[in-house]
Write a structure and sequence with these properties.
5% of the residues lie in helices and 36% in strands. Strands 6-7-8-9-4-3-10-11 form an eight-stranded mixed sheet. Strand 6 and strand 7 form a beta hairpin. The two termini are 24 Å apart.
């Protein structure tokens, strides 16, 4: 049975809901995610774009990711909460920031990617597979 989950920004102006299981869950240690989060990594889950219902206005800021491809970071224009990532290399997928889930306790990362960019002060779970970059090109 598919997991149904909801989430949103800090101020409540942007909400989302999804009723499919994530395609993947991961901790991304790329420098772009570090800069955008202000931390050592971003915990993210990927879902098909057409399975995600978003209400409220989302602003997107385009950056060149560590892969060299364009990534659009989605955030709430009111409170600035980062919510989504739309990679140009995977136009049918959207990444959701795990910290924006209403009930983030069920989230479990299945891997660490861009591990070569991980900061020495970040303690990665030794049980998770580590990939120097993206493990595979995301589903298109």
């Amino acid at each position: 049975m598919a997991r149904s989950f909801t989430g949103g920004c800090s101020c409540g102006a942007v909400r989302y809901e999804c009723s499919v299981d994530p395609l993947f869950t991961a901790n991304c240690h790329c420098r772009d995610c570090q800069r955008a989060s202000g931390g050592g990594f971003v915990s993210v889950l990927g879902v098909p774009r057409d399975a995600l219902k978003i209400t409220g206005e989302v602003k997107y800021f385009d950056v060149k990711g560590d892969s060299g491809n364009l990534v659009s970071r989605g955030f709430c224009p009111n409170c600035g909460s980062r919510l989504f990532a739309r990679p140009a290399a995977a136009p049918t997928m959207i990444g959701i920031m795990a910290g924006s889930l209403d009930e983030p306790g069920w989230y479990r990362p299945a891997m660490d990617f861009y591990a070569t960019s991980a900061q020495p002060w970040v303690l990665m779970d030794p049980a998770l597979p580590k990939f120097p970059k993206m493990p595979v090109e995301p589903n298109r």
